[in-house]
Write a structure and sequence with these properties.
The complex is a heterodimer.
Chain A lengths: L1 E2 L1 H6 L15 H5 L5 H12 L5 H16 L1 H11 L5 H9 L5 H12 L1 H7 L7 H4 L6 H10 L20 H28 L5 E5 L3 E7 L11 E5 L3 E5 L1 H33 L2 H27 L5 E3 L3 E7 L2 H7 L7 E6 L5 E5 L6 H15 L9 E5 L3 E5 L12 H15 L5 E5 L7 H17 L6 E6 L7 H4 L3 E11 L2 E10 L7 H7 L4 H20 L3 H4 L18 H8 L7 H17 L1
Parallel strand pairs in A: 1-11, 6-10, 9-13, 9-14, 11-12, 12-13
Antiparallel strand pairs in A: 2-3, 3-5, 4-5, 7-8, 7-10, 14-15
Helix pairs in contact in A: 3-13, 4-13, 5-13, 6-7, 6-12, 6-13, 7-10, 10-12, 11-12, 19-20
Chain B lengths: L5 H12 L4 E6 L2 E5 H11 L4 E4 L5 E8 L3 H10 L4 E6 L12 E7 L18 E6 L3 E8 L4 E8 H11 L3 E5 L13 E5 L6 H12 L13 H18 L10 E2 L6 H6 L1
The chains are: A alpha/beta, B alpha/beta.
């Protein structure tokens, strides 16, 4: 199923359009994954809903399994919380840029694998979820034996490779340590040997280690001391032994660095040898995480498993808007039913005042279909979804200042795109088409669009059409597949209460002035508006208003062009490069062309 | 040129090799930028624009960031769509040996980030490559942090839909060859030389990278635009990463043309 960028934005699938954040979007409500891999995968699933029934049933089956297996789900979620980004870690290790700390992080994740595998034992896990799911005890053990739990940040800083991993490194380290210890002890030992109490062992960058003796004690200096430097108060000596240990210390430090770097690289290479399998593990964890997350969301938000088929019917009982429902808090949201069917209720015209909840209802239906086609459960009492090939949306006013398009122009461009690309399999969500221009223009366009969708075999898509032009309800009189609904309003002594319940029938008033009053417009303005309205309605009834004048039914078939221009189908056929098509693509193309030819 | 210091000469040479990128030039404990780069960086990062004499009477605008704060500043530059070439000191400074050698070790672009600190772990970071003729488009995408690499070929009018689904952070395409087709607004666009997208060149790049003699096994051998797009991605990453690409071991060919109609006719 295809979702264009505008639809993703309009339906607030991946981000809330006001804040630009994930919170307050569909993703924010249903992403209960715990691992980074899982959260990337669920984002992918949401932005690419599927059309293939078998794939969707497979996912549904798995979610249903995770919903039922409460204990397994809880232990999975607990284990996933400890997992880090295995997918990216193994990539960094493979490309040779990983830091020691990251290798330890991978090890910690791999170490949770045995518990994960055992928690899935006897749990009747769907087999496709188990592919690639295996522990890597050798890799975990390798890292555990090689790298300190809290290594220094760069290999070569001396605190990366554990003792007992490399004999060479161990002996270098112990030599270095012994030598340091030896020098520390040397001062006392030489003091005792020579009887010179003021003898000192020191170090400077030019001479390295030396023994310093003051002038008064020079006669006691043993013969094996080699004079190196004369100072005012004394002389400095070295011994072959001293230099030997010095070399040991300095060389050892350098060699330890080199050796650690090369040992660390060797460990990384060994891990990278398994990278294909570890990547497969990352994929498996991502899938399982998404399934567990969808199940958790279904339980938490009270979703049900929708029935899916390849039919042309959408039937939702007590559907809810998953995001609005959450922000309102428990039990406040008023659920609504939906019935759409290409052969009967193809177009639903939804009338009602602004603010009554028309847009919420429209988006709710689209989101339920979208969720169903990602394999998720849906916010409804019961749902039957005939799969949809694309959701088109025309919602809201948006100016495209960058390209110099007015609100109305944007609206019309988007509408044109929908009418040109929709198929009978599509779901169209049209909110207030024609709002961006004058009333008569807008109403005329809105009616013409609805008639086109209804009558044109190529585009007769299931459509939700919200409008505050209550004249639109007249379409049902001559278009058999149009159904009127409105948002119930209770009016009591001039007080308007929106009941947010969708009921059959058209609205007769738009209550715009009531909304203005609720919004806090000055009393005088509201009162005057009321007078103007009464006046206008009186005039409208005398002359024939837009509703009356346009009652003439539209032609049910569209006329073929009389101007002899070449048909786009022919043109496409001429330009078709048959050689570059696979047989399957050719077949698809043929079908597409025939469809176009029939539609025209 | 006589009044120019050796460091300045070295810098200009590096800058010349990376004309489209901001060059961060390592000088001791700082990464410095010069000339227009310095003005841009000072503005974007709100750091002080100063100047440095690099040759007699030759004061050059300069702005620098301390080396340990690189990731933070890099994130801000890249998220605003800049490409950043990082030029490191390759040798230890030795007295009397002249200036140290410097080399660009990598070019950071929005689509080729690998630093965990610069990435959103909840999102894939896709680089998309686009090759098009009058009717068809080849679209390849890669996330180098996860090694996901795939390519497809589809009718030109579906290309925008596919790219927007991927929500890439960077798009590469040829200088010419998109005609009047509009891909603006989807992501930052990097234009590469046309030859990079040449089919022959792309085939060679891919075969070299995967160490194979034919692309049959990847399912795209008969899709010239899909191959062009995929080859260009490898070329671009090689240019910017300068580190091992050996973890990219797979290329999958996928189809977006849905078999929906066909399935239902059956």
């Amino acid at each position: 199923m295809a979702l264009d960028e505008q639809t993703l934005i309009n339906l607030e699938v991946l981000q809330n359009s006001r804040t630009g954040r994930v919170e307050g979007s569909l993703l924010g409500v249903i992403d209960l994954t715990k691992t980074p891999m899982g959260s990337r995968l669920i984002r992918k699933w949401l932005s690419q809903p599927r059309l293939e029934l078998p794939e969707l049933l497979k996912r549904q089956e798995a979610v249903a399994w995770a919903v039922e297996e409460t204990m397994v789900r809880a232990s999975l979620i607990a284990l996933f919380s400890k997992m880090s980004d295995i997918e990216r870690l193994i990539n960094r290790i493979g490309s040779g840029v990983a830091l020691p700390r990251e290798v330890v992080t991978l090890r910690r994740s791999l170490e949770t694998m045995p518990s994960l595998v055992s928690s899935l034992e006897n749990a009747r896990v769907p087999s496709w979820l188990q592919i690639g799911l295996k522990p890597f005890p050798d890799i975990a053990a390798l890292v555990a034996g090689a790298i300190f739990d809290e290594p220094s940040s760069n290999p070569g800083d001396g605190n990366v490779i554990k003792p007992k991993f490399s004999e060479e490194l161990d002996s270098l380290r112990s030599a270095s340590k012994d030598a340091t210890q030896f020098l520390a002890n040397l001062e006392r030992a030489e003091q005792e040997n020579t009887g010179i109490k003021s003898l000192k062992v020191g170090y400077n960058k030019v001479f390295g280690y030396y023994i310093e003796v003051s002038n008064a004690n020079l006669p006691q200096v043993p013969p094996e001391y080699i004079r190196k430097q004369t100072l005012v108060g004394g002389e400095r000596f070295i011994t072959p032994e001293l230099k030997e240990y010095e070399a040991l210390i300095l060389n050892a430090k350098e060699r330890i660095e080199e050796l650690e770097v090369s040992l660390f690289k060797q460990v990384c290479r060994q891990i990278a040898g398994e990278s294909e399998h570890i990547l497969a593990l990352a994929t498996a964890i991502a899938r399982l995480d998404v399934i567990a997350g969808l199940a958790a969301a279904a339980v938490r938000h009270n979703f049900v498993r929708p029935e899916l088929d390849e039919g042309l019917r959408i039937e939702i009982k007590d559907g809810r808007h998953p995001v609005v429902e959450q922000s309102l808090g428990g039990g406040v949201f008023i659920p609504n039913d939906t019935e759409l069917d290409n052969n009967e209720a193809q177009i639903v015209i939804l009338t009602g005042p602004n603010m009554a909840g028309k847009s919420t209802y429209l988006k709710q239906v689209a989101l339920i279909v979208l969720l169903a086609q990602t394999g998720s459960f849906v916010p409804a009492g019961k749902a039957h979804i005939g799969l949809v090939d694309r959701i088109f949306t025309r919602i809201g006013a948006r100016e495209d200042l960058a390209s110099g398009q007015s609100t109305f122009m944007v609206e019309m461009v988007e509408t044109a795109n929908i009418l040109n690309n929709a198929t009978p399999r599509s779901l169209l969500v049209l909110d207030e088409i024609g709002r961006g221009t004058s009333t008569y223009d807008g109403l005329s366009i809105a009616r013409a669009v609805a008639e086109y969708i209804h009558n044109n075999a190529r585009t007769n898509a299931k459509t939700l059409f919200a409008t505050h032009y209550h004249e639109m309800v007249e379409l049902a009189a001559y278009l058999p597949k149009v159904r009127n609904y409105n948002v119930a309003v209770s009016e009591n002594k001039g007080e308007v209460v929106f009941l947010r319940k969708i009921v059959p029938g058209g609205a007769d008033k738009s209550y715009g002035i009531h909304v203005a009053q609720m919004a806090g417009l000055p009393r005088g303005v509201v009162h005057r508006a009321h007078e103007v309205l009464v006046d206008l309605e009186a005039k409208g009834n005398n002359k024939s208003g837009p509703g009356a004048k346009n009652r003439r039914p539209a032609p049910t078939t569209l006329q073929i062009s009389l101007f002899g221009e070449k048909s786009p189908v022919l043109e496409e056929l001429e330009n078709l490069q048959v050689d570059s098509l696979t047989p399957l693509e050719a077949l698809n193309k043929l079908y597409e062309l025939q469809n176009k030819a029939r539609g025209q | 040129m006589n009044d120019v210091t050796p460091i300045r000469r070295q810098y200009l040479k590096v800058k010349q090799q990376h004309p489209g990128a901001l060059v961060l030039f390592r000088l001791g404990d700082f990464y410095e930028t010069f000339d227009d780069d310095a003005r841009t960086v000072a503005r974007e990062l709100e750091i002080v624009l100063t100047s440095r004499e690099m040759g007699k009477g030759n004061r050059i605008p300069m702005a620098g960031i301390p080396y340990h704060a690189l990731d933070n500043y890099l994130a801000r530059l890249v998220s605003r769509g800049y490409k950043v070439a990082i030029c490191e000191q390759m040798t230890q400074p030795t007295p009397g040996r002249g200036i140290v050698e410097r080399e660009v070790t990598r070019v950071v672009t929005p689509g080729t980030i690998v630093e965990p600190a610069l990435l959103d772990s909840h999102k894939n970071n896709y680089l998309v490559s686009l090759a098009a003729d009058d009717t068809q488009a080849g679209i390849a995408f890669i996330d180098i942090t996860t090694s996901e690499f795939a390519t497809t070929q589809l009718p030109l009018n579906q290309a925008r839909l596919e790219i927007s689904r991927l929500a890439p952070s960077e798009i590469i395409t040829a200088q010419n060859g998109l005609g009047g087709w509009d891909i603006s607004g989807l992501a930052g666009i990097t234009r590469l030389d046309d030859f990079v997208f040449g089919t022959e060149n792309a085939v060679r790049t891919l075969q070299e990278h995967f160490g194979v003699t034919s692309l049959e096994g990847y399912g795209c051998a008969h899709l010239p635009l899909a191959v062009s797009a995929a080859g260009a991605i490898i070329h671009y990453i090689r240019q910017t990463q300068k580190s091992s690409l050996s973890q990219i071991t797979r290329l999958s060919t996928y189809h977006t043309v849905l078999l929906w109609h066909w399935m239902n006719r059956r």
